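Try it yourself: sequence plus zinc ion, in.
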Amino acid sequence: LAILPVYTYEHPVLRKKAKPVRSLDDDIMLLAKDMFETLHASNGIGLAANQVGSLQRLIVVDVSEMEDSGHIKPVAMINPEVVDEKGTWVMEEGCLSIPEIRAEVERPEQIVVRYKDMGFVDREIEADGIFGRVILHEIDHLNGVLFIDYLDTQAQKQLRGRLNKIRRGEVDVPYQIVAELPTAETVK
Ligand SMILES: [Zn+2]
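Structure, out:
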């Protein structure tokens, strides 16, 4: 298993729409395992394939360390889609691809998500709280959408300096990154 580097803002792969996975093969199985490794190594709670440079509709979510979510097992979802949603709530979010930035985002409160599991079996589950939020955040990644896209123009303006630093790879994180405009030190 491998810990993969995380692609950071504003690498073009984060703005592309990932493609549906048509069949289960060894590459997808390995990718899912490596994504869990990467997620745990970076202390994240969710990761989409775009974030490790792969344009497959695959996400991994692990909120088992979060308060009140300890009963929810880590899950990999292939071709996830939201088929129903209810209510809205606001919570502060962050993203492994946008280090050191957090912002409040409004999202649906309860969702029904349809996906294929790692046996390529169709599943449909209800999700709410942090679990539902992470799923929505990761599905956004598969569609080239980032949480900062929800901020108003003023808030985005205020973040511009910090975002430019991220673009140049000037971030202090305990995991390897692939920046949009790598400086000499970040090229490995
Ligand atoms: Zn993210």
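One thing you can check immediately is this: The chain has three helices and seven strands.
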